[in-house]
Every structure is written in C-alpha cells, then in structure tokens.
Write a structure and sequence with these properties.
single chain, Arc Repressor Mutant, subunit A, three-stranded antiparallel sheet
Length: 139
C-alpha cells in the first residue's frame, strides 16, 4: 500500500518497544512505529486511534505521529486545546513557560515546546494574557 507523508490514517496500537509502539496502519498488515518522545497520551494494546504518516524510510519502514504534521495544523489544534481548557477552568491555567514539561503534558497532552508555540500564537491574537502565575483568557 502506498502512503503519502502527512496522510491521515487509522492506527491500531501494537506492542511497545524500546523506541515506541508498533502500530498497524489502516487495519492492514502494514507496520509502523510511533516514537516514545512523540506520545503525549496513554496508549493501550489494541486501541484504535487516528494518526499521520510522518516519514517513509528507505528501508520501507513507516514512522507515524499522533499529531498532524506541519506548523499550521499543529498550532491550530494546540491553540484550540488551550482555549477549551481555559474555558473549562474559568479562564485561568496555572501554566507558564517555566512550568515543568510533565505538568504541561498532564494538563494538556502536549509537549512544552508545543505549549509555548500555541501560547505565543494566542498572545499575539490577544486571546490570552500572560502573568507570572499562569495564563488568563481575555474576556
């Protein structure tokens, strides 16, 4: 089966490895891999989830991601997650650029780098304010 980089696919989570998780792509016998450093949510054996083709290596092996590829796709998704969480938490999140990566991942299911990019975008759009103690939704 031919895939294109960035293509959205259905994944079935397979066995964990030292590098990440093996996955089956589009319920076929096509095997892919999600790396540990790109997983920001719990995964279970047999779980069905949407993923994206990240890379097709010369040896034919396929790397996949749980996030869409490309800055615009990712930033839009992450800003939406932050706005939604702010609304659910009465307009305030106790997260800053100094927050521990584990806390950001636990609260938002994203990396610290992704968080900082999305917060920067929201700040430029004047949708949030940033204080020493966290971020606030502009009313």
């Amino acid at each position: 089966m031919d895939f294109e980089i960035g293509e959205q696919v259905e994944l079935i989570i397979g066995r964990p490895t030292d590098l990440g998780y093996h996955v089956y792509i589009n319920e076929d016998q096509v095997d892919g891999l999600i790396y540990h450093n790109e997983i920001f949510q719990p995964l279970e054996l047999g779980q069905k989830i949407i993923g994206y083709i990240k890379n097709i290596r010369e040896d034919g092996k396929i790397d996949v991601s749980l996030q869409p590829q490309g800055f615009e796709n990712v930033i839009d998704k992450n800003t939406a997650i932050i706005l939604e969480r702010l609304k659910a938490k009465q307009g305030y999140l106790k997260l800053t650029d100094k927050s521990q990566p584990e806390y950001i991942q636990q609260e938002l299911n994203m990396s610290k780098k992704a968080f900082k990019s999305a917060v920067g975008q929201l700040y430029k759009q004047k949708k949030i304010t940033i204080d020493d103690d966290g971020i606030h939704l502009v009313k």
